[in-house]
Amino acid sequence: MSVQELLRPIPPSRELPATKWLPPAGVRIISTDDHNLEALHLWEERLPNRWKDKAPKLYRDQSGALCFEAEGRSLIPRGVDEGVSSGLPGYWDLDEKIASMNAEGIDVSFLFHGITQGLNGLEDKELYWACIDVYNEWLINYCRDHRDRLVPIAILPAFLKPEAARDYVGKIRQLGYKALQMPAFPRGIRYNSRSMDPLWAAIEESGIPLMFHVGAYVEFVGNGSVGANITRNLAPYRGLLGQLTFSGVFDRHPELKVVFCEGGATWVAQAIADMDYIVQTYHSQLKPKLGLMPSEYWYRQCYASFITDAAALRLVDIIGEDNIMWGADYPHAEGTWGYTNEMLKGMWDQLGPAAGAKFLSGNAAKLWSL
User: What is d(CA 346, CA 309) in angstroms, rounded to the nearest whole number?
Assistant: First the structure.
């Protein structure tokens, strides 16, 4: 088959085929990774007065292009046209979002940010905190009429102030959230520092699983840079898992649950094998000493949510059928819109009924008590 025959249209140009496969009765299809665009002018309109002159500006220009600016610069990563990655109307219209879920047989959708992750680069961290407050208060209300279908994901900014984590997690719970996320690689933050212990303790005590999501980082420029950057961004988690494991975070906080989203899962098989081998061969150099082998922490506390990963499905006996879950990644180009039914059936057939039900439904339902 030629390359041209393998190419898929960008999401707005995809045709939605008739549904040919339905999961068995009792299996709800749960997407643990979708996205929703924030309201235009959100921060300009809702930030407290002390921040009004510094408010990030989210708007569409005269051509209709989305603009996101703060601190005198654009916060939108360069390289991919908006229509390619964010051109479906369900990205900014909840009625369209619910209609798209119905059309593709998706029962529950977890909603990550659309563009808020761009705020991670703000120099003013107090402004960042205030912006995240606004976002969290907006998103839960935005989804309130569809709480049976949508699971909004709060952003926890307390990696900047671990001592404030318990209060902020309490606020998230009071708002009504059952899912939260933090940036995977915040600049200047060391998740392996013992100063972060109040943060991990607060999340653990809340019982809310912590989600990490891949980011849109621009490392390469020039020829082939778009493909190179996307390739890099879709495989970021080995170091983060190693950091959390070898620094003893999972050992000290055995009830902490962590979900690594949109980074595939093939990496898990090699990562946990490598980490176990590192313990076997470098044990004299490792501090702190761990009570379990690294792979045991993975099986006990960690999950990978992914769009499609044929190699991972062949390695599910190593990765763990209890440690995988699915995400459609609506509305992005790498997401499944237009091909969801076909892809779900293929993954179900490859995994078999027992593991397939866990992957597409059961593991997420159990973790978040859905």
Answer: 11
Give me the phi and psi of 152, to 5 degrees please: -70, 145
- Both tokens assigned to 86: 């964010």
Q: What is the separation of C-alpha 17 from the centre of its chain, rounded to a whole number of angstroms? A: 27
Q: Please count the other Cβ atoms lying within 10 Å of the Cβ belonging to residue 55.
A: 20
β-bridge mates for residue 324, sequence order: 304
Write the pLDDT tens digit of every residue in 293-332. 999 999 999 999 999 999 999 999 999 999 999 999 999 9
The whole-angstrom separation of Cα 27 and Cα 358 is: 9
Whole-prediction pTM: 0.96
Peptide bond into 48 cis (omega under 30): no
Overall number of domains in the chain: 1
The pLDDT tens digits for 277-289 are: 999 999 999 999 9
Is residue 16 in some structural domain?
no
Residue 1 or 222, more confident = 222
d(CA 107, CA 149): 6
Do the domain assignments include residue 50? Answer: yes
Q: Is-contact 131 45, C-beta < 8 A?
A: no
In a domain, 346, yes or no: yes
Domain that holds residue 45: 24-368
Contact 290, 275 (CB under 8 A): no
Is 2's pLDDT higher than 90? no
**Left if phi > 0, otherwise alpha if psi is -120 to 50, otherwise beta: which for 280?**
alpha
Instruction: Tell me the CATH number at 158.
Output: 3.20.20.140
Strand residue runs (E) in 123-214: 150-152, 154-155, 180-181, 210-213
**Residue 364's closest CA among 33, 1, 17, 25?**
33
What separation, in Å, do the N-terminal and C-terminal C-alpha atoms of the chain show? 42
Q: Where are the alpha helices (DSSP H) in 38-156?
A: 42-46, 82-86, 94-104, 125-142
